[in-house]
Amino acid sequence: MIAVKLEDAARQAPGGSGLRKAIDFLKRPGAANLPDGRHGIDGDKVFALVQRYETLAAQRPRFEAHRKYVDVQFIASGAEVIGWVPLGFVRVDEPYDADKDVCFGEAAGGWTPVRLEAGQLAVLYPEDAHAPRLAAGAPARVAKIVVKVAVTEL
Questions:
Q1: Is the pTM higher than 0.85?
Q2: Which of 24, 45, 83, 105 is geometrically suited to a Cys-Cys bond with 92, CB 3.0 to 4.6 A?
Q3: CA angle 153-130-95, nearest 5°?
Q4: Domain total for the chain?
């Protein structure tokens, strides 16, 4: 997992063409104002999901992990905490669904809170279980862009 300001992402989150496309997309003027939903970047290899929601005060966060895609979770406005734990420390209670590219579970022990504010992003790899949408203090509105990058594009 990497947490970084968007302006530093190209240097601190090096990778293949997929990550470069994700970062370039997030830097586009007006990206933060796109409507909610899916936005194409490079077919099913790289695409963005724009979301607006209220964060949650979760006592026992639900962790997720993916195999086919890396998540680049960018906070366009607001702030949230993303819980992080190595996948090996998650008790999976909803097995991996290949069609949805996700499994779910609870952290078997502690977990690390990663606070992201507007202009910051987290790059979450398949080995990074994560619990997004957690309140950074009191629940509040957030605008987020999640760019999904196929692991084959790293």
A1: yes
A2: 105
A3: 85
A4: 1
| CATH number (domain holding residue 113) | 2.60.120.370
Distance CA 37, CA 62 (A): 23
100-129 tens-digit pLDDT: 999 999 999 899 999 999 999 999 999 999
DSSP 11: H
Q: Which amino acid, 25?
A: F
CB 77 within 8 A of CB 143: yes
C-alpha of 67 from chain center = 13
Residue 82 neighbours by CB distance under 10 Å: 25
Which 8-state DSSP code applies to residue 87? G
Those residues whose C-beta lies under 8 Å from the C-beta of residue 121, and which sit 6 or more positions away, are 3, 4, 5, 6, 9, 26, 72, 73, 74, 75
pLDDT tens-digit series, residues 32-44: 999 999 999 999 9
Answer whether 26's CB lies under 8 Å from 147's CB. yes
Are β-strands 79-86 and 128-135 bridged in parallel, bridged antiparallel, or unpaired?
A: antiparallel
**What is the residue-wise DSSP string for 51-72?**
EEEE-B--SSPPEEE-SSEEEE
Structural domain of residue 133, as residue ranges? 2-153
